[in-house]
Amino acid sequence: MLAEALARGERMLVSNGIVFWYEPDGQLGWMVKSTTSDKGEDGATLWREGTILSTNHGRLVVLPYIKENGEFVRGHTKNGPGDGRAKPRHPDHYVEIPFRELKGDLMIGLFGELPYE
Questions:
Q1: Looking at the whole model, is its pTM more than 0.85?
Q2: Cα 61 from Cα 59, distance rounded (Å)
Q3: For the chain, which terminal residue's Cβ has fewer other Cβ atoms within 10 angstroms, N or C?
Q4: Domain boundaries, the chain
Q5: What share of the chain has pLDDT > 90, as a percent?
Q6: Percent helix, strand and coil across the chain, each rounded to 5?
Q7: Could you give the angle at the alpha carbon of 28 between the alpha carbons of 73 and 53, nearest 5°?
């Protein structure tokens, strides 16, 4: 699945709160991260595809969303509560990664769950 995504030029896939993130620089390759939420909160609307701008090495990915008041919040990375501040990237090494959310009903979940049952 990841090799096929990379061949299509996709470097980030999201499925059920799990993020597959690809960084070619420094031979990092594919990494697994998580989203802070896979559903909109407080009336916010999540985008199902778009771009994430990573200015740090945070372990969580915040998907882009529109607040209830219409304000657009760009996707980004951050650390979770209690993790401390995420290590910043040098501005020359900011990563802008397009993403697409996979339809969870088309695959077996990472932990063997079958969403369509």
A1: no
A2: 7
A3: C
A4: 2-103
A5: 15
A6: 15, 40, 50
A7: 15
CA dist., res. 89 & res. 60, Å (int): 15
* pLDDT for the residue 116: 56
- What band does 89 get if pLDDT is binned at 50, 70 and 90? very high
Burial class from Cβ neighbours inside 10 Å (0-12, 13-18, 19+) for residue 21 reads: buried
What's the average model confidence in pLDDT over 98-110? 62
User: Following CA atoms 62, 67, 71, 73 in sequence, which dihedral angle do they give, to the nearest 10 degrees?
Assistant: 0
51-63 pLDDT per residue, tens? 889 999 998 888 8
Q: Kindly tell me the burial class for residue 33, based on how many C-beta atoms sit within 10 Å of its own C-beta (0-12, 13-18, 19 or more).
A: middle
- For residues 57, 26, 33 and 46, what is the CA-based torsion angle, rounded to 10 degrees? 70
- What residues have CB less than 8 Å from 101, skipping those under 6 apart? 13, 14, 15, 48, 49
Nearby residues of 42 by Cβ (< 8 Å), 6 or more positions away: 67, 68
